[in-house]
Specification:
alpha/beta; Isopropylmalate Dehydrogenase; Rossmann fold; 3 domains; ten-stranded mixed sheet; two-stranded antiparallel ribbon; 13 helices; binds 1,4-dihydronicotinamide adenine dinucleotide
């Protein structure tokens, strides 16, 4: 059977790591028909937008896509291709597993946790007002009239919406994920002691949903204490569920527990659509130099294959990555440096992909 998958190579290191990923998936024996579509700064001149309609149409039609990273232009009108895609398809659950592998170059062993980040609301909703604009002024006046506090006149304002419905579906997703994956515990992460309305609602809903899953342990933790707990005792954590912004930050932290951004895969899941992509960005500092670690892209592809029902091929890719890292002979510069203090003698992106393919 041939699976149709939309491939958005992205920019920066995107084309290098997605090219390597295609070779690995093909070597794993899965037949994929790639529908390649381009998004990002490189297509603005041609289409007038970094996210052309035909890209959205392809994802809508096929229902499953894998991406390389896309650079977010700073200070232009367009917020982010990544955020826009998540919004267009209501990809509400961002799933980021972090699992230690021998030879991954991290300071930790035995980390095995998954961060589940709400993807559609919170400060990431992008409802923002520059200082001195009519919107900021109106909000400031409203806040004063409600007796809710004083906002300085020269303040820019971001709005943090957290809904009951949004919280309920992400927490439910986390518990269903825990059940499917044979996990033992879900930790809801929040700052409800300070943000009593927004994070307070998230926490209340999390407790309500947890009551329906007596087979899975539940705890809640404040986000700052969670960060300390993660770096001191990552083995205490299993599945974490977080509002959008905390999830963004904490999932980079957890990537650091398993060797860094080059190791951390991810999936954005909605009801009708799923888009797989690594946690990292386009790494402009190393783009086009055959230096990037494509492991996160390979492991994202393994998550994609799980989603397509190709479990055996997905496991083979994970095993081949593990074996290549454990052997330690052909690894990229980020891993080499973490292991030895110097990137000297490291393999390039494509040579590392060849080693993974040989291990397959
Ligand atoms: P970044 O993740 O691209 O890079 C941070 C650091 O990690 C850099 O030193 C980079 O060289 C290193 N790094 C990242 N991925 C690596 C890999 N696979 N192998 C080896 N080293 C790697 O984060 P940064 O620099 O903040 O963002 C660059 C651009 O990417 C921005 O425009 C940002 O908005 C965008 N971005 C896109 C994402 C996406 O497409 N989903 C996600 C995150 C950021």
């Amino acid at each position: 059977m041939t699976h149709e998958v939309v491939l958005i190579p992205g920019d920066g290191i995107g084309p290098e790591i997605t090219g390597a990923m295609r070779r690995v998936v093909e070597a794993a024996g899965v037949s994929v028909s790639w529908r390649v579509v381009e998004a990002g700064a490189g297509v603005i001149e041609q289409y007038g937008t970094p996210l052309p309609e035909h890209v959205l149409e392809a994802v809508r039609e096929v229902g499953v896509a894998i991406k390389g990273p896309v650079t977010t232009p700073v200070g232009t009108g367009f917020r982010s291709v990544n955020v826009a895609l998540r919004r267009a398809f209501d990809l509400y659950a961002c799933v980021r597993p972090c699992v230690s592998m021998p030879g991954d170059g991290s300071r930790y062993e035995g980390v095995d946790l998954t961060v589940i980040r709400e993807n559609t609301e919170d400060l990431y909703a992008g409802i923002e007002f520059d200082a001195g604009t009519p919107g900021a002024d109106a909000l400031r006046e409203l806040v004063a009239a409600e007796g809710a506090g004083a906002i300085r006149e020269d303040a820019a304002i971001s709005v943090k919406p957290i809904s009951r419905a949004g919280s309920e579906r992400i927490v439910r997703y986390a518990f269903e994920y825990a059940r499917r994956q044979g996990r033992k515990k879900v930790t809801a992460v929040h700052k409800a002691n300070i943000m009593k309305a927004t994070d307070g609602l998230f926490l209340r809903v999390a407790r309500e949903v947890a009551a329906g899953y007596p087979d899975i342990a539940f705890e809640d933790k404040i986000v700052d204490a969670t960060c300390m707990g993660l770096v001191m005792h990552p083995e205490d954590f299993d599945v974490l569920v977080l509002p959008n912004l905390y999830g963004d930050i904490v999932s980079d932290l957890t990537a650091g527990l398993v060797g860094g951004l080059g190791m951390a895969p991810g999936a954005n899941i909605g009801t009708d659509c799923a888009i797989f992509e690594p946690t990292h960005g386009s790494a402009p500092d190393i783009a086009g130099k055959d230096l990037a670690n494509p492991t996160a892209e390979f492991l994202s592809a393994a998550m994609l294959l799980d989603h397509l029902g190709e479990r055996e091929a997905a496991d083979r890719i994970r095993c081949a990555v593990r074996a290549t890292l454990a052997a330690g002979e052909v690894v990229t510069g980020d891993v080499k440096r973490a292991l030895t203090g110097s990137a000297e003698g490291a393999a390039g992106t494509q040579a590392y992909a060849d080693a993974v393919i040989a291990a397959l």
